[in-house]
What we know:
With 252 residues, this protein is an alpha/beta fold. It has helices at 16-29, 44-53, 80-86, 96-102, 106-118, 131-135, 139-150, 156-159, 180-198, 200-203, 219-223, 240-247, and strands at residues 5-9, 37-41, 59-63, 90-93, 122-127, 163-166, 207-211, 230-233. Helix 1 crosses helix 12 and helix 5 crosses helix 7.
Amino acid sequence: MRKPIIAGNWKMYKTVEEAIALVRELALQVEDVTDTEIVVCPPFTALDAVIEAVEGTNIAVGAQNMHWEAQGAFTGEVSPFMLKEMGCRYVVLGHSERRQYFGETDENVNRKVKAAFSYGLRPIVCVGERLDEREQGITEQVVKTQVERALAGLENSRAVDLVVAYEPVWAIGTGKTASDEDAQQVIGFIRDLIAGMYGSELAEQVRIQYGGSVKPDNISGLMNQKDIDGALVGGASLDAGSFAGIIKYRGR
Length: 252
């Protein structure tokens, strides 16, 4: 059975002091949670402090991006080796904001996915369609291209530890969310894609999240869908009470 994974993407919010305060408060509110994996993804500047603050808790830490090289003349970049050395366990790759504002391509995401695994990091690979693509009826085509290119050449032994986050771009930070049924339809489609690439047995082990305006009042309906294994949470993860409410869905 797949263990749910709920991750908070803090984006470009929280100073070091604010990040420490948030994660300490969160840890107190979710200390009794054992059946859901909890991840927080602070900005780079707060990673070290947050990793230290969550030591001994049930909260793991991830980064929001990385370069695919271990080192080099890449001004402003952070390598997978550096993240692993700090104590990161996860890294978010291919987020729509990286694609939209910083020219992230499927090919670069693929490089980063392979590099993450090479250094012992688990990638959370984001895919999803824009509003105009949904209105054109090409959601599955867009998602298929993103998944296949992001995972191209990835070995079965590593693909099994992959996390995929389906985030329809039109639902990120807008207050809109896909219906439970729509989210399930696309996430089920992604699982079928992975089955086609790696076999159905492996596909049943891969965890697939939903992201896009996830809140305490809509998480239960999403999590009741058979193929949705968690959430990649944006704004609601910036408040300990709100994020804890999402993590403790179904009254655990």
